[in-house]
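Journal club prep, notes for RB
We'll compare a predicted complex against what the paper describes. Inputs for the iron/sulfur cluster case:
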Amino acid sequence: MVKGLYFHVPFCSYKCPYCDFVSVVGPQAEHGHYMELLLKELSLYEELEFSLQTLYFGGGTPSLVSPKTYEVFLQELSKLVDLSRVEEITIECNPENYSLEEFRALRELGFNRVSLGVQSLREEGLKALGRRHSLEQALRSVHWAAEAGFERLNVDLIYGYQGQTPKELERELDLLLSLPVSHVSLYMLTPYEDTLFGQLYRKGALSLPDGDTLGDMFELACDKLESAGFVHYEVSNFALPGYECRHNLLYWTHQEFLGLGVSAWSFVKSRRFGNTRSLKLYEEKLKKGTKPVEQEERLEGREKLYDYLFVALRTRSGVPRALLGKAWQELKDFFQEEGDRVRLNRKGMLLLNEVLLRLKKHLRDNLTPDWEAVS
Ligand code: SF4
């Protein structure tokens, strides 16, 4: 049963130098047409059963699309699927896009969660990250979203950019904690290969804080946010109690969701499948009445166990210890125990990729737990 719908809105006004999401800098006239394609794609999934709890508009920059277009979209969407039990509708917004009136219009349409791509609360940080909005715009947009009634309000923050020290991160967090936000997504800057930052980093033209400093920054951020009452409920996510992102929790608890749009991924009936990353191909396939799926993985047995562990280990609830089998002995420094469950400690979160690789290798060589019994 599909519980969440993700809509990828790939438009951006510019390309950020660290971003590896699929995004296109295109004319506004295309937005309405693209939203129609999303509906067309959904209509191709007649075989699925839906019991929708969440909708999530991510990108890209969904806030480049006008509230009026979302109004038409939601009306048409409600003709295809039952939205009466939807509890959470999230939209990702860039600080420079919506006015107070537009946030109010979204709230009236039923959106009840905003995720703001603030990224830094320092002018120097915004410049270092190649963002084109100002600190003033970021702060104003947080206040406008709150004033429009968005209690479920997330701010995305990136740490570890060129020139940032722990002290400066601390100041950004102090400012953050003075704002009316109920959720914080905190990401370490990663110079992904296909990005401008990736190229600069490889050439030695971008210097980022070293591993120890990044570790200190992560510890500092966790301490500060937790002492302000935020629960560290997923590796990169903190929420005041009750304000966790319900949509993302579907991903991390292995529940079914359908992703629509260019490059969107889905998890349905033990299959992970992903759409084409080309906007042109996406449109061509839909015009022919074909699903734009390009990659697919059927998860069975051991693969299903890996997949479950990899998502569930990101969360505060962790996994039953029995699932780790003999890997527990080797990896226990990265975990903390709670009854018969285990979850990553901060060291484990910081070294997440390494832990997951070691776990995968260990399980491949020594798979002993009775998966069906403990799942
Ligand atoms: S970070 Fe956001 S705004 Fe920047 S290019 Fe990527 S999707 Fe667009």
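Talking point for the session: Confidence is low (pLDDT under 50) at residues 371-375.
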